[in-house]
C-alpha cells in the first residue's frame, strides 16, 4: 500500500505498522477546551484521533470545529461525518472546509437515527448514505469534482475510511457490505467494538478469502468495559453490539471495585489476540468518556511507543 | 392507497364549537378503505358531535354528505347547491381531498377531520403499513421489489446499516429492517450479486425536493 495523501495514519499503515487510533467525543456545549484536554491525554499513544459527529444523535460541538482544534494543536484528526443531518451540499462544503485546514482523514458514516438522541422530533436528511459519501469524497479527491460537476482545485486530500459492523444482521451480507464500501472508496475500516471474537474472526476470514483485507486496512474496534452495568447495557440496549454472556459473566464475576481493571485487562487481551490475526492492521480504541485509560491500554498491549513518521 | 386515521373527537369539537351549522363530508375513496373517512365514519362523527353538543346544551346543527371522491372536481360539484347553508365544513377525506374542497369553495371554512398518514397497504383489518414515498423514480426493480426509501428508517440505498438486529430496525423492534427484507428477497430471486454494486446518489428532484409536483400527461388531455 502506497500512501497518496498527507495523512499520517495512511503513512503508518503503508509502512506496515499496526496503527492505533482513538476518539474524542466533543462536549454538549461550546467549551472547546474539553476536546483539547481529552486529546492531550491520548496524543502520544495514538496515530490519529477520531472526532465523533453528534454521536448517538445527540447535539454536540461540531466535529469539524473540534478537528480544527486538534489540527491547531499539531495533532492528526479523523473527521467523522454522518449523513443524517446534512445534505450533499453541506457535506461537500464541510469536506472542503476541513481540507482547507489540512484535515486529511475522514470517516464516512450514515449515523444513528435521530430517534436515539436529544432531538427525536427532528427532521432527518439522509440525502446520501455512508457508501455514497465514500464515493463522493473519492470523487472529489481523485476526479477533482463535486457531485454537481463543478471542478475543485486544489482537491481535498483525504484518506478515506468507513465503519463496518460484523455483528449486525444479516451476517451473510456483512462481508459483501465491506466489499461494497471498499469498491466505493474506503481505504481503512474501523470496526464496531468487538466482544464476540468468534464471529469477528469468521468475518475477517471471509473478508480475507475475498482479498478485502488487502484492499482496506482493518482497524479492530476495542471498547473497554467499565463495569458489569455497562456490559449489560451494551448487550441489551445498544443495537448492533454483540456482547456474549461470558463477557458479562467475566466482568460481573469480580468485585465491583475491580471491574474496571477487569475491563481493561479484557481489552488488552483482545488486542493481543487480534494482533496475531492476518488482516488486522491496527486498533481503534473507543474508550467512551474514559480517555484517560487509553495510554495504559496502548502501553500494556505492547503498542507503545508509536512509530515516528514524518 | 392513502392511509389516514380519524382525528381525536376533542380536536374536532374544538374546531367547530363556535359555529351554528356544520357539514361533515366523507369520501368514498381511500379513507373508506382504511375506515377513517367514509360514509360510516361520517355518521359516527356526526352522531358523536350531536351528542356532545346536546349534552353541552349548545345549539349546533350537523349535516352529513359523502362524495365518491373529493380529489375529483366533478364530485366536489355535487355540493354546490347546499354548501352555502353551512358556516364550516369538516372533510374526512385525505389532505388532498380537504384542499381540493377548499380550493373549489374558496369562501368556505374547511377543516380536516382526519390525519393523513402515508401511502400503504392493508396488512390485515385495522393494520396498515407504509410502502411508498412517491419519490417519482421507482427503483424497486433493483431492490427485490422492496422500497428502501419507504422501508429503511435511514432511507439508505446501500444498506443495511450497522444497527440491524434479528431482522428488526435499530429504531424500533416493531419495525422490520427494510434491508433485511431486501436481502431475503434478493436471495430468493438469486439476485444477491446486485447488492455489491454501489448505488449512486439518488436524484431527489423527482421527489418532494423538486418542489410541489405536477404530472402533465399530454396523451390523456382533452
Ligand atoms: S422507489 Fe420511490 S416510487 Fe418506488 S416504491 Fe420507493 S418511494 Fe415509491
Ligand atoms: S436497521 Fe435496517 S431499516 Fe433500520 S435504518 Fe438500518 S438498514 Fe435501515
Summarize the topology:
The complex is a heterodimer of chains A (310) and B (222).
Chain A: H1 8-14, E1 19-24, H2 33-42, E2 48-51, H3 63-72, E3 77-82, H4 88-100, E4 105-109, H5 130-143, E5 159-164, H6 174-184, E6 188-193, H7 197-209, H8 212-215, E7 217-222, H9 228-237, H10 245-252, H11 259-275, E8 280-285, H12 294-300
Helix pairs in contact in A: 6-7, 9-10
Chain B: E1 2-6, H1 9-16, E2 21-27, H2 30-33, H3 39-55, E3 61-67, H4 73-76, E4 88-91, H5 95-104, E5 109-112, E6 114-124, E7 127-132, H6 148-151, E8 168-169, E9 172-176, H7 178-189
Parallel strand pairs in B: 2-3, 2-4, 4-5
Antiparallel strand pairs in B: 1-6, 6-7, 8-9
The complex binds iron/sulfur cluster (2 copies).
Task: Kindly summarize this structure in a few lines.
The complex is a heterodimer of chains A (310) and B (222). With 310 residues, chain A is of the alpha/beta class. Chain A has helices spanning 8-14, 33-42, 63-72, 88-100, 130-143, 174-184, 197-209, 212-215, 228-237, 245-252, 259-275, 294-300, and strands at residues 19-24, 48-51, 77-82, 105-109, 159-164, 188-193, 217-222, 280-285.
What does this protein structure show overall?
The complex is a heterodimer of chains A (310) and B (222). Chain A has 12 helices and 8 strands. Chain A is α/β, with parallel strands linked by helices. Chain A has one domain: TIM Barrel, CATH 3.20.20. Chain B has 2 domains: 2-118, Response regulator (Rossmann fold, 3-Layer(aba) Sandwich); 136-208, no CATH class. Helix content of chain B is 27%, strand content 23%. In chain B, the strands form 3 sheets. In chain B, strands 3-2-4-5 form a 4-stranded parallel sheet, with helices on both faces. In chain B, a hairpin with a 2-residue loop joins strand 6 (114-124) and strand 7. Chain B is elongated. The mean pLDDT of chain B is 97. Classes of the chains: A alpha/beta (310), B alpha/beta (222). Chain A binds chain B through residues 84, 88, 110-113, 115-116, 124, 126-132, 134-136, 147, 163-165, 168-170, 172-173, 176-177, 179-180, 183-184, 192, 239-240, and chain B through 153-167, 170-172, 177, 179-180, 183-184, 192, 195-201, 204. The site of one iron/sulfur cluster (SF4) has 10 residues of chain B, from helix 6.
